[in-house]
Amino acid sequence: METKLARISQLSKENPDMVFTSLGHLINKEMLENCHVQMDGTKAVGIDGVTKEEYGRNLEENLEALIESLKKKSYKPKPARLVEIPKDNGKMRPLSIYCYEDKLVQEALRRILEAVFEPMFYDEMMGFRPNRGCHKAIRKLNIMLERKPTNYVLDADIKGFFQHLDHEWIVRFIESRIKDPNIIRLVRRMLKAGIMNNYEFEATEEGSGQGSVCSPIISCIYMHYVLIWWFREVVTPMLKGYAGLVVYADDCAPRRRKLVT
């Protein structure tokens, strides 16, 4: 399975305009079993209360039933359990806790999305990517400040980024590279699964829950199109001198160019 994903990643890198039309079959028993093995079993449980250990006791039967529902297009993820955790600034961050089986499907979907989109991301994207992180983002920013002719830095944060991602734009961005209806159906159902807040169901008409295995890659795809691609392909060619950008999730730091006279 890893070989197949690596091949998809290679094709995506070598053919930037390539559109993948048949990827849903990759979410099979082998992939889901591998997702189960690698899943962290210490995480909080969803509304069904099922842990990794409990799910694994009848793993063969559970996976076969899951695969059958995926094939019949009857799979429907359960609502996430909403909790709030404190942030460093004293405010609260909403966190969505998903049921274990839904996490397996999310992880399989994440692997496919990452294989297709990771090769096309620009270097400015530092968050939620393999072999990158906040330390490399800071290092990149320091290099720009110390070695480039910078006039000023703008530190920006998108308020409520994960909670307000537009579902239709998420789908449109994904469809720019993936036209498999099975993948798109899973993405839509995952986004529309809803949440349980104080024992009451709330529909999710926007956003991708923080706590979803897929949210990090979805946020990268979104930021790639709405900010980084625009900055690299539209803004930068019109400027004189230097301009740089570092993006980590919903935080970004553009550096003002040195004017050329």
UniProtKB/TrEMBL annotation:
Entry keyword set: Nucleotidyltransferase, RNA-directed DNA polymerase, Transferase
Q: SUPFAM superfamilies from the entry?
A: DNA/RNA polymerases (SSF56672)
- Name a GO molecular-function annotation: RNA-directed DNA polymerase activity
Checking PROSITE patterns in the record gives:
RT_POL
Domain Reverse transcriptase as annotated: residue spans: 66-261
Q: What is this protein called?
A: Reverse transcriptase
Its taxonomic placement starts with: Bacteria, Bacillati, Bacillota, Clostridia, Lachnospirales
